[in-house]
């Protein structure tokens, strides 16, 4: 099953040449989930040949502009392009008011239903679930209420061995994939283990932006497969990071290490850094399996 994320923006507060504010597109089993929507996100989707019409779920972490100033534009374009299927948005309670006032004064009556779920940023909760995954919030420590999100795949069915399955009626596939043995009318037994192999283990992706280094959210991300964590500054700017409630590259790597994650992606880079190699080097000095979450990169989760 496809489980991958494409980075649409890697910049913090202000954009710089070649770097956009934060947005990511998660694809799980061909369903598309947009995580944050900084200014220019719809342009980035076009640039990387990703169809905005396929997005059915949008998660907004907090109300700093670099995480949602692209949202009104994206929602308006979908309306102009004739969308009628619902859009589910999860975000801070005030986000709905902000959107409604923009639609009101542009006299826009959306052709499609906008289904809004207000996030409670005081405690980690499950906010979404379908057949493929669940989404829980991560309570971050920022200057305004801010939540990260952890996307956890559900345990999947066993996989049919094609050559073997071809020898039996399809009617038995469902039971065998569930791990059940089947008794045929003539008394013969079909054992699930003979016709299937173990399912791929469910994987998880945690998204943490923006936040101060704070152990209180570690329980939400421990042992996750891939962690995206903001790394706004180099560690020599620790005072500035603390002051603005952000994290350094070194701290992001420490968080990945102590929480036993398998892979770390860093992003949300300050515009003061024209190149990013030194941020990567700093993180890799503590946690080797780190990559830069930069525009256009797709990571298999
Ligand atoms: Zn930010
Ligand atoms: Zn912020």
Question: In brief, what are we looking at here?
Answer:
Helices cover 23% and strands 27% of the residues. It has helices at 41-47, 71-80, 94-105, 162-165, 173-177, 192-195, 218-221, 238-243, 249-258, 277-284; strands at 3-9, 23-28, 31-37, 55-59, 87-91, 114-118, 126-129, 133-139, 147-153, 159-160, 182-183, 189-190, 196-197, 204-208, 226-230, 263-267, 290-292, 298-300. The longest helix is centred in the N-terminal third of the chain and has 12 residues, at 94-105.
Jot down its keywords.
single chain, 301 residues, alpha/beta, seven-stranded mixed beta sheet, 10 helices, 18 strands, 23% helix, globular, binds zinc ion
Name the beta content range.
25-35%
The number of helices is 10
Please give the radius of gyration in angstroms: 22 Å
- Helix percent reads 10-25%
Instruction: Give the averaged pLDDT, no decimals.
Output: 95
DSSP E strands, number: 18
Described by strand count, sense and barrel closure, the largest sheet is: 7 strands, mixed
What best-fitting shape do the alpha-carbon axes yield?
globular
- Molecules bound to protein: zinc ion
Low-confidence stretches: none
SSE order, one letter for each helix or strand: EEEHEHEHEEEEEHHEEHEEHEHHEHEE
Coarse structural class = alpha/beta
For the biggest β-sheet, the strand order reads 6-5-4-3-2-1-18
Taking the alpha carbons of the first and last residues, their distance comes to 11 Å
């Amino acid at each position: 099953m496809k489980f991958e994320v494409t980075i649409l923006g890697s910049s913090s507060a202000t954009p710089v040449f070649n770097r956009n504010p934060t947005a990511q597109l998660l694809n799980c089993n061909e369903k598309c989930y947009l995580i944050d929507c900084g200014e220019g996100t719809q342009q980035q989707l076009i640039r990387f040949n990703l169809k905005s019409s396929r997005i059915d779920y949008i998660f907004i972490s907090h109300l700093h502009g670099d995480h949602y100033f692209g949202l009104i534009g994206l929602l308006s374009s979908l309306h102009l392009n004739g969308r009628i299927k619902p859009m589910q948005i999860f975000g801070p309670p005030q986000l709905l008011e902000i959107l409604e006032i923009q639609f009101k004064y542009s006299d826009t009556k959306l052709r499609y239903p906008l289904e809004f779920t207000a996030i409670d940023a005081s405690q980690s909760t499950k906010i979404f679930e379908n057949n493929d995954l669940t989404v829980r919030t991560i309570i971050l420590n920022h200057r305004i209420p801010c939540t990260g999100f952890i996307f956890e795949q559900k345990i999947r069915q066993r996989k049919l061995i094609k050559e073997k399955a071809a020898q039996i009626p399809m009617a038995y596939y469902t039971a065998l994939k569930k791990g059940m043995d089947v008794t045929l009318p003539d008394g013969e037994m079909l054992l699930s283990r003979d016709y299937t192999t173990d399912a791929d283990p469910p994987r998880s992706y945690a998204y943490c932006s923006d936040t101060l280094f704070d152990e209180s959210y570690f329980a939400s991300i421990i042992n996750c497969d891939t962690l995206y964590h903001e790394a706004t500054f180099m560690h020599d700017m620790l005072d500035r990071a603390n002051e603005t409630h952000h994290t350094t590259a070194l701290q992001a790597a420490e968080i990945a290490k102590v929480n036993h994650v398998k892979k770390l992606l860093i992003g949300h880079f300050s515009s003061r850094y024209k190149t990013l190699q030194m941020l990567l080097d700093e993180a890799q000095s503590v946690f080797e399996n780190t990559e830069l979450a930069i525009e256009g990169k797709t990571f298999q989760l």
